[in-house]
């Protein structure tokens, strides 16, 4: 996968997904995310959306300092991204 500019630093979508999955499992979650999980862009911000067959399980926002933060509430447009 090619590198994309995400904010003020370069990273890959694959790396962001990997970091979000690690955070998801560290939180004690049992449900397994599906391969429909993705990185999406909305209103100038980057989000990692973890999904399974039941829908969106978690959304992480990429902060300006490169940290992923799990959101309790997320924009509706982000919850069901179009690939």
Structure explained in plain terms:
- By secondary structure, this protein is of the alpha+beta class.
- The chain has one domain.
- Helices cover 22% and strands 36% of the residues.
- It is built from 2 helices and 6 strands.
- It has helices at residues 13-26, 76-79, and strands spanning 4-6, 9-11, 38-42, 45-52, 55-62, 68-70.
- The strands form 2 sheets. It has a 4-stranded antiparallel sheet with strand order 3-4-5-6. The chain has a two-stranded antiparallel sheet with strand order 1-2.
- The two termini are 15 Å apart.
Average pLDDT confidence is 82
The helix fraction, in percent, is 10-25%
Q: Structural class from helices and strands?
A: alpha+beta
* Strand composition percent: 35-45%
Query: Number of helical runs?
Result: 2
- Describe the strand arrangement of the main beta sheet, using strand numbers: 3-4-5-6
H-E order: EEHEEEEH
- Inertia-based shape: globular
Number of strands: 6
Number of domains: 1
Main pleated sheet: 4 strands, antiparallel
Radius of gyration: 12 Å
- What ranges have pLDDT less than 50 throughout 5 or more consecutive residues? 1-10
Distance between the termini: 15 Å
Features:
alpha+beta; single chain; four-stranded antiparallel β-sheet; 22% helix; 83 residues; disordered N terminus; 2 helices; globular
């Amino acid at each position: 996968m090619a590198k994309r500019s995400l904010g003020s630093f370069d990273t890959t979508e694959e790396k962001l997904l990997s970091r979000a999955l690690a955070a998801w499992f560290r939180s004690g979650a049992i449900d397994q995310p599906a391969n429909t999980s993705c990185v999406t862009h909305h209103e100038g911000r980057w989000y990692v959306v973890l999904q399974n067959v039941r829908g969106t399980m978690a959304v992480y926002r990429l902060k300006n300092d490169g940290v992923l933060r799990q959101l309790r509430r997320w924009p509706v447009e982000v919850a069901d991204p179009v690939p």
